[in-house]
Design goal:
Shape: globular
Distance between the termini: 31 Å
Region (Disordered): 50-69
Strand content: 5-15%
Mean pLDDT: 88
Biased composition (Basic and acidic residues): 50-63
Number of domains: 1
Largest sheet: 2 strands, antiparallel
């Protein structure tokens, strides 16, 4: 399965794989397991960034170009292999989290897990 991740998350995934002796799918499943209860909130935050306090209007999704300009990073393609049974679990989590796609679910979880861990460990 392919997903788009921030370059920093791809680099963190490589480090995590080496340290934990796991494959790319293991990174994904560790991230989702760790953040299972927070996935709906993380997905919602990614889908509609908040507007300033007191605004009458909901947030608007940022374009990939605008996000790259703001963060200085453009998401890159990253792959992992999943079995039919694992895809079924991802499909169920996609529905319960409100993610628009498996890719959005996975990238949200992996980026939050790996990049959030890096910030906490500093």
């Amino acid at each position: 399965m392919s997903v788009y991740l921030l370059p920093a998350a791809i680099q963190a995934a490589a480090t995590y794989r080496s340290k934990e002796h796991t494959d790319c799918a293991g990174v994904v499943y560790d991230a989702i397991d760790a953040l299972r209860d927070r996935l709906p909130a993380l997905v919602a935050a990614r889908q509609a960034p908040e507007r300033r306090e007191g605004s009458l209007f909901p947030g608007r999704r940022e374009s990939a170009t605008a996000a790259a300009r703001r963060t200085g990073q453009r998401r890159r393609l990253w792959f992992f292999q999943a079995t039919t049974a694992e895809l079924a679990v991802l499909d169920q989590l996609q529905t319960t989290s409100g993610a628009r796609s498996r890719s959005e679910l996975v990238s949200t979880a992996v980026e939050a897990y790996l990049l959030g861990r890096r910030r906490r460990s500093r």
